[in-house]
Design a protein that fits this description.
The chain has five helices and ten strands, in the order E-E-H-E-H-H-E-E-H-E-H-E-E-E-E. It starts with a strand and ends with a strand. Strand 9 and strand 10 (174-180) form a beta hairpin. The chain is of the alpha/beta class.
Length: 181
């Protein structure tokens, strides 16, 4: 999850134009997706992803990242936490609208690779409130936003974490990896 130094994942109107993305970040993210076979989103982020990634790799000016991520996106299982998204016509997509804790635990216990959450602060809020996140990958961007959508919201109980890894990328973004202790 990208965040500002002051803990925001988006500006007050959801803007993310401050996030540093470059080839180094794309390579870093690619290693994470290689280890994942399920992508979990909240509705808004899923709809943004669905509008772009299925055909991003087919465009004449597609970057290496667009081609790789589009191929990954088109093959992974997608899980969407939403009370408003409906329809069984969604390809390779499961919608969870009730019993979120039970459904996510069942998903985590199923065989397969990692489950990755891209963006989706509202999904992260739900997962954190239920203590369902095992690994936290935080990409702290060198900016103070002052206001916006915070990452750490409505956490009712302390979540102890164990430091695993940090790396400062050439862009100044600090990649942090923590595991639930």
């Amino acid at each position: 999850m990208h965040m500002s130094v002051d803990g925001f994942v988006a500006g007050p109107n959801g803007e993310m134009d401050w996030i540093n993305v470059d080839e180094v970040m794309f390579e870093f993210a690619g290693r994470q997706t290689d280890e994942s076979d399920t992508a979990l989103y909240a509705r808004k982020t899923y709809q943004m992803m669905e509008d772009y990634w299925p055909t991003a790799g087919d465009k004449p000016n597609a970057s290496k990242h667009d081609i790789q991520h589009s191929a990954w996106y088109n093959t992974v299982a997608k899980v969407v936490i939403s009370n408003s998204l409906k329809g069984s016509h969604l390809s390779n997509t499961t919608i969870i609208s009730g019993n979120i804790n039970k459904e996510i635990i069942k998903l985590k216990q199923a065989p397969g690779k990692n489950i990755v959450v891209f963006g989706s602060p509202s999904a992260a809020h739900i997962l954190m409130s239920e203590n369902l996140i095992d690994d936290y990958w935080l990409f702290v961007n060198p900016i103070l936003l002052g206001q916006g959508i915070t990452l750490f919201k409505d956490i009712q109980n302390r979540i102890n974490l164990k430091f695993v890894y940090s790396n400062t990328l050439p862009s100044g973004v600090v990649a942090l990896h923590y595991k639930k202790a």
